[in-house]
Write a structure and sequence with these properties.
The protein is α/β, with parallel strands linked by helices and 294 residues long. It contains twelve helices and twelve strands. The protein has an eight-stranded parallel beta sheet. It starts with a helix and ends with a helix.
Length: 294
């Protein structure tokens, strides 16, 4: 098991992987399907996604477990398979990575609102703890609590993951640019507030993912870095903002398009740069090439 923080001590900007959901959709995942079930029903397809990012030169890859908390899996009727599906997700990425890069277990939101009483804090904590432990058993080196909007859920996830595994934790929130030019999550959390809350809960790395293209992420990173000059920052940006084309959501930024923005992200304080929706191994290869050329 390797340490992400020790790797960051070199001062080199690390490269993460790209999209998982949109890549699996290209392989046949349909709207309404459970992506985590593919870890056992379409293992070779999931493995191919992971291998694509390893071969592109990523320093770390994630796992196909974004919706793997028992609370989230309940909507597909497979809550009782959470341990199996998460361990399988980790094992697939571990096989793809070998000793070439780190594996970081993905843990996304439950989709339930604590403030609305849709789920209890204990249920959320226990679910994230189970998921984190299953990912650890499958061979991950670290965990990422990602695409968070609410501070309470993010903090519970971080604490549960740390208590269950003792692994290093990354926490990312997803932000939208408001009409008055400010970045906030759906729950009204600013980048500075998100950074402080994640650190207080025990995250070793903070950051942002999804929701924005590489251009917009520059503003988010600047705000986070202003609020926290020290903690490593991870960015997983979309391949531009989504557009509807022929009834399908597409992301239009090419690997060539993102190259100049990668350098600006690094210059304003990002320590790990990767992709989210719409990005491919080609985008990751472009990031690797840009960072290695400077």
């Amino acid at each position: 098991m390797k340490s992400l923080l020790k790797l960051l001590e070199s001062g080199r900007v690390l490269v993460s992987d790209g999209a998982w959901g949109t890549m699996l959709q290209e392989k046949g995942l349909q709207a309404g399907d459970c992506p985590e079930l593919w870890n056992v029903t379409h293992r070779s397809d999931v493995l191919a996604v992971a291998k694509g990012y390893v071969e592109a030169g990523a320093d770390m890859i994630l796992t196909n477990s974004f919706g793997g908390s028992p609370v989230k899996l309940a909507q597909y009727g497979v809550r009782e398979r959470a341990d199996e599906l998460n361990e399988a997700a980790a094992a697939i990425s571990r096989e793809a990575a070998g000793d070439r890069c780190l594996v970081v277990g993905s843990m996304g939101p439950t989709g339930k609102f604590l403030m609305m009483g849709e789920v209890t804090e204990q249920e959320v904590f226990d679910g994230f703890a189970l998921q984190a432990n299953a990912l650890r058993k499958g061979g991950v080196d670290a965990l990422v609590v990602e695409t968070m909007s609410a501070i309470d859920e993010a903090a519970i996830a971080i604490r549960a993951a740390r208590r269950a595994t003792g692994l290093e934790i990354i926490c990312t929130f997803t932000f939208d640019l408001t009409a008055n030019g400010e970045y906030h999550t759906m729950m009204g959390v600013s980048p500075g507030e998100a950074a402080a809350a994640a650190k207080e809960a025990g995250a070793s790395v903070i950051g942002a993912n999804c929701g924005n293209g590489f251009d917009q992420m520059i503003g988010v990173v600047k705000e986070m870095r202003k609020a926290d000059p020290v903690t490593p920052i991870l960015v997983h940006a979309n391949a531009g903002l989504p557009v509807l084309k022929d009834g399908k959501t597409v992301y239009l930024e090419t690997p060539h398009d993102i190259v100049p923005k990668v350098r600006e992200l690094a210059d304003c304080g990002a320590n790990i740069i990767g992709g989210c929706c719409g990005t491919t191994p080609g985008h990751i290869r472009a990031i690797v090439g840009e960072l290695k050329s400077n």
